[in-house]
Amino acid sequence: MATPEVSSNPAAPAASSVSSVVGNAAETVKANVSRGFSFMKVFSATQTGTVVVMLIIAVALAFLTGYILYYTINKTISKQQSYILPETKIPILTTQESSFSADEVPSSGNGKRASLSFWIYIYDINKYNGTVRHVLHRGAESDKQGTASPYIYLDPSTNKLYVTFAPSDGKLFINPPNGQDYSSLLPSPTATTLSTDQLAFLNATRGISIDYVPLQRWVHIAIIVNEDTSVGGSITAYVDGEFVKSVNSKTDLSSLTAGGQVISTQQVNNLNYPVPKFNITNVDLDKKGNIYTGGSVGSGVGPGFSGMVSMVQFFNYDMNANDVYLLYQKGPVDNMLAKLGLPAYGVQSPIYRIG
Predict the structure, then answer these.
(1) ω into residue 343 within 30 of 0, thus cis?
(2) Scanning 71, 214, 289, 298, which has the fewest C-beta atoms within 10 Å of its C-beta?
(3) pLDDT value at position 311?
């Protein structure tokens, strides 16, 4: 088994220590700039050329020290970390269940922010038709939607992808207006099917859907969660390095679809729950347990799907659009021998994007 690789930075110092580091760096910037101007003052009365040279040196010193200050703040205070499941650097078949340790996944930070990235290859969308097709989840093997976090699955009949998160406060549905407990809407822990309304309703709490995942080619998926925003939190989805959707606490269900159909007010009312808005709060970004991928009819996680996943990676910060695109450009495998061996997985070419 490959040795886990963790890209991490040293733990952040105490507030007083951080303040001292930043203060010292600022004083260094000030001293270097002052020194540069002193040089200019001395030589300005004699040699114009020397003044120009010393000015360039002063600017260079200021730039270098400013960069050190930026690096110190970005790396020491932000302590951005990421972790890729080493086993997924080579594609993992998803018609069978696989389990991996999540012990090295960094805890969320920077104001309840985190990102998830993975590649998916859907070969036959009809396999296990009629059931929720498990892609991957984090938690216990038996966890499902509402308890695993994240829980990622394909629609029972289409190539629509759902990503849901469990609540950190134990409340499955957020602030129901009539005080009722709606946990009964969730299937039993062993259930493998959900109705269209249940899928839509569950997705409306803490999650996001991607309406169309292309078939029979590699597709990159990135999900960014930011619970610390002016709108009360947001979840954003990217496909192949491009923005496709974002939901936040001001978004209502008018944009939500399931099974290709818009979910109407009446459909939600049939569940005795008024049409809610998304409310991205109390999202469990640090779920304990392993990471499970794929599955079969007889496995503990239920049916997977006909295809593969690879390069499953976790981040303890909210990636921006440029971060996502750079990650997408790296491709679905991190090993040249694996790229040459892709035909063994039923993939005829390592090319992962068409057009």
Answers:
(1) no
(2) 298
(3) 96
Give the DSSP per-residue string, 262-282: EPPHHHHHTTT---PBP---S
At 165 the pLDDT is: 87
Quick one: CATH architecture of 82-345?
Sandwich (2.60)
Q: Name the burial class of residue 261, with classes exposed (0-12), middle (13-18) and buried (19+) by CB atoms within 10 angstroms of its CB.
A: exposed
Please give the Cα distance from 328 to 228 (Å, whole number): 25
Alpha helix positions (H), 44-79: 48-72
CA 68 to chain CA centroid, Å, is: 29
Q: What is the DSSP letter of 68?
A: H
How far apart (Å, rounded) are the C-alpha atoms in residues 294 and 306?
Answer: 9
pLDDT in tens, 111-129: 689 999 999 999 999 999 9
113 beta partners: 109, 226
Intervals of the chain under pLDDT 70: 1-26, 28-30, 32-53, 68-78, 109-111, 169-205, 229-231, 250-279, 335-355
Taking only the tens place, the pLDDT of each residue in 169-204 is: 666 554 444 444 444 544 444 444 545 455 555 555
250: left (phi over 0), alpha (psi -120 to 50) or beta: alpha
Q: Which residues pair with 60 in a beta bridge?
A: none
Report the alpha-carbon distance of residue 117 to residue 310 in Å, rounded.
10
Produce one character per residue of 120-134: b if its CB has 16 or more CB atoms within 10 Å, e if not: bbbbebebbeebbbb
Nearest to 192 by CA among 286, 274, 299, 280: 299
**Residues contacting residue 205 through CB under 8 Å, at least 6 positions apart:** 164, 167, 172, 173, 174, 276, 278, 279
pLDDT attached to residue 71: 58
Burial class (CB in 10 A: 0-12, 13-18, 19+), 226: buried
Question: Where does residue 3 fall: left (phi above 0), alpha (psi -120 to 50 degrees), or beta otherwise?
Answer: beta
- Rounded Cα gap, residues 208 and 248, in angstroms: 10
Work out whether the CA dihedral 283, 285, 286, 287 comes out positive or negative: positive
User: Cα(100)–Cα(292) distance, rounded to whole angstroms?
Assistant: 6
